[in-house]
What we know:
By secondary structure, the protein is an alpha+beta fold. 35% of the residues lie in helices and 29% in strands.
Amino acid sequence: MFICAKSDIGMKRKENQDNFRLGTLSENAVYTVVCDGMGGASAGSVASSVAAEEIAERISTGFREDASEMSMKNLLVTAVSAANTIVYHMSVNEPEKKGMGTTCVAAVACGETAYIASVGDSRAYLISDDISQITSDHTYVEMLYQQGKINKEEISTHDMRHYITKAVGVEKEVEVDFFTVDLKKGDSLLLCTDGLTNFCDNEMILKTVKSAEPNEALEELIDCANSKGGKDNITVALLCNK
């Protein structure tokens, strides 16, 4: 099992409000956490850093290789919920951090199974012979699409396409999505912020991950986003079952 991650400020932003953590849990297990902060001044970077650190700490200390799927769900959901509580209380008690929050996607890959938790619009993709999005975006336009009020093509041009309906630290409690997927030999799990997916399509992501070594793939994906304007921070992580 191999893991790597990289974050880039992009071409337009003055600060990188993305944060990530990654680590090895055992010979057969790794984890990563990717967060995209939001909030004025430096509050967004504080939210993403605090959340990523709390989730990583809880995964590192709570992981057991023989854990059941339900135990893994409890571990990841509890970790994200704990981060939500910390960020929320900071937002409420520190005026300069009012309203801050962060997206979050976290994954643990153990053997041939991956467990994913998500809040917001940072994504996880399974890359095998094809690419498939595992997580669901918690955005206003995704809600409209699911309701049949707009089509797929309208999502990327809608006036409210950047409006997130759910984030870590914005409300006192947060509902966390959880997914379990098979991660067979040769498969990869890609986690990223929307600084990548707003500029690089699925075909490009698939081709890059399949044709390059993991660390090189990260560089190429970030270069792709920057070559198309780099209007946001970009963070990408790869968990590879080699």
